[in-house]
Amino acid sequence: MGTAQQHDRRAAGRRLLSLFSAAAVTFAAGLTFVTGAAPAAADPIEQCTPTHGAVVAVDFGPFGGGVVRGCDTTPTTGYELLRDGGFTTEGTQHDGEGFICRIGTASFNSGTPYPTPATEDCVLTPQATAYWSYWIASPGQSSWSYSPLGAMDRKPKAGDVDAWVFGGTDVGGSTGRPAFTPDDVRAGGGATPSPTPTDGPSVPVGKIDVPAAARWVSEQLHDGSHVVDEGSETPNYFLTTEAAYALAAAGGKSPALDKVVAALASGATEYAYPAGPEEAPDAPAAARLALVAAVTEGDPRAFGGRDLLGDLEKNVCASGPAPGCTAKGDFRGAAYGDGQALAVLALLRGGMVPPADAVTRLTQLVCEDGSVTSILIGPGEHCDGDPMTTGLVALVLDEAGGQDAAVAKMVAYLKKAQLRSGAFPPYNGATTGSVVATAYAAQALRALGEARAADAAVWWLSREQLADGGFGFDEGAESAALYATAPVVLAGTGTSLVTLTTKAPEPTDPPTTPPTTPPTTAPPTTPPPAGDGPDLKKAVAYLTSPANLQQGRYYAAGGSTTRADFGLTIDGAFALAATGHDNDALRTVVDFLDKGGKDGEARTVHDWTNVGSAHAMGGSMGKAAVLAQVVERDPRDFGGKDLIAGLADAVCTAKSPQPDRSCADKGAYAYAMSVFGQSLGVIAQIRAGETKAAEAPIGYLAGLQHIATGAWPSLVPPTGDADVDSTAMAAMALDLVPGDTHAGAVDRALAWIAAQQLPDGGFPGAAGNSVNSAALAVQGLSLDAGKYGAQIAKARKFLASQQNADGGFNVAKEGQRGSDLRASTQAVGGSTGISFGVLTRSLEGTTPNPVPSPSASAPVIVTPGDSAGSAGGPGIVDTDGPGGGSGGGGGLAATGGQALGLAAAAAVLVLAGWGAVVAARNRRSAMGGGL
């Protein structure tokens, strides 16, 4: 029922930023299992089963080979699964083993690692259309998902399948997916048993206490007319529309509902036309208001003085990709599948025929397995859907007519996705229920004739109703949320946004048989976090603990390496500077960087910035320079190098011709391949008093802003996406420019960021509801804290909810649990709200901590030599087959090291350096490598 801007749950990986644009991945037809050579460390493939071990498959098709798969019965990380599955890897010179640049196996061409040095030198991040992308699939999942975590952070579970494909993806891994399916390479060569019965769950029928839920909704209204965020007087129109739908479903026409509708009408221009009354509307907002009008017998052509339907119809994209348009048929600025669906439905309910292209766009979001992706992907891009979006789109396409095959495919998916408990998961592969997803799926299934499955879903929902009448987001939630409660009310009354009306409602009470059998899975009980924001002292203790901060001086790049992740180390220094809770630890880190300190591989920070070399990286130099400025060191002599002069030299005078990829365009910094890198360079130059020298970079950065929305893309050169993290960073940079030339751009950016906030206070990012995105949003919105105080407070509470007992933070609300260093550095610094443009921390009076002796028991990775083997042909090869690798000199030792490095698309990690900052239109993950 929400615009996707408000989703509380996202499938892991749905909002990832990949560094690379699309590339074709070749794969020979006729998948067959054959045998081949393998390193001794690979476990026999038959030892990996749906309940034991994990399988990894690598496609050597672009190099004349086939798909080679390996087994590891005890994988601890995706990196170890690849290595212990019988493959060798090589990282880049710049980033080390954490960024996988080459992969080889004795089963193909005598172990030659690919790509060869003739095509990729593996000095810096690989070129945009040629890198090893990382894909994952859980048991029972029939399609690949782009990994929300890097190989060193991902922890495979029994029955999982990983895939590595050479080529490229566009933002978010939407293209370039494997040409084979997970079932093609699973242990045994076929599909694993579905985790749920295909004929639906077997649970009794239940009943939701709709009056109690409606009372709870009414209690959330300020002055009985609108919803406000805690601590704010500003209406939250999005949630107010949700309240209107719920009240209409529960009680039909009433004075209370009339008051809510009047408040929405009076705020129609403010809500639906954020760019100005004469500009194009925000399509999801306009659609929501139009549906309120239709539901309550009003006129969506004259709601609050606005012709909502006419404005929607006029703003359908004629082509794409373009600013505000992913593809032809998008409602301009819709960005997400549910926004597109609501706009189509608004036109249908207003008696209009939606543009055919707009309906076609919904069909293009239907994935091969019948799920519907929440993101407005382009035709042919990688598709990974979820039950919530599938339920809504199925309802809308059924109402539009002429889409029977697509609707049937979606219904089949929903029946298969339903858990034994009756619930629906938030994303493919999840094993616990989501209230919102279950409510939408129940609405769709009932409307489309699947009463048994709908009853089971409603029964599960009835078990999740809280004592106050409301519903929380997740299974076992202990606090209610309006965005979760409203769609449950519709499901409980047997209606949906397609049929909801206050005019002569039909009796739709669900069956009244009380539940008698509990679900098969008991809901977890997690108490809500205390306090208004994260415990920063506890978080700093996590960041500075000996297990994380190596010898008190740097963070390691991951695995068993003693190589420093300098980008992540600087992120940690920013976090320490922002809080001031351990200035001696900050002094120790800064001294290490500034005084030529060397990591375990004898590298200094300038082996990372490359200042003074042909590969000087603008973003990395900018990041190091900003740290020097923050702690009142001299960026013109930091680590013995003049970073400000290096930045001036790195300003591109023209776009570099291919294959040279150093300069994206005039005004860009050399090798600054993200908005992050460009922004940091601008901040460093301005803070150094070099505003004149920064004019071209400032102009280039400003020119990347989407005029229609105020958002910034993730990559340089731009790819058309819109990203919370990058928008916040660019706003901080332009806010620092003297004068008011860019004031309007910053204002539009902050308004756009605020509009992306999810109901629980989080923000969409790489792996879903992202810690990094929320933290950067706080920093950006704090540029105008007076206006956005309520949003900031909600975001800080969200960050507190993601803090773990050890003080660290999860990557995102969804997915793999556990503290992540990269996410934690961003959460700590971001939650203070201090912009990188003004962050300052004096080290006067501090004392560097003593450096402990390095442990003699650090794990070591031993890589055997190439095994003698013959070149493999197309097909699927097992690394452990007959004739396998006895000539390689021993097995691969497991690293056993804690993964600190890669998150999501490793490429952007290298570029952005900042936490798992992820986006694809919304996704991104950052590695501390080069900016």
Structural commentary:
With 931 residues, the chain is of the alpha+beta class. Helix 16 packs antiparallel against helix 17. The longest helix is centred in the last third of the chain and has 17 residues, at 785-801. It is globular. The protein starts with 32 loop residues before the first strand and ends in a 19-residue tail after the last helix. The relative contact order is 0.16. Mean pLDDT is 82; it is low at 1-40, 189-205, 505-531, 854-874 and 882-930.
At a glance:
With 931 residues, the protein is an alpha+beta fold.
Low-confidence stretches: 1-40, 189-205, 505-531, 854-874, 882-930
Number of beta strands: 15
Overall average pLDDT? 82
Secondary structure class reads alpha+beta
Question: Strand order, biggest sheet?
Answer: 1-15-3-2-8-6-7
Alpha-carbon distance between the termini?
Answer: 38 Å
Largest sheet: 7 strands, mixed
Overall geometry: globular
Number of helices: 29
Quaternary status of these chains? single chain
Strand percent estimate: 5-15%
Query: Which bin fits the share of residues in helices?
Result: 25-40%
Rounded radius of gyration (Å): 27 Å
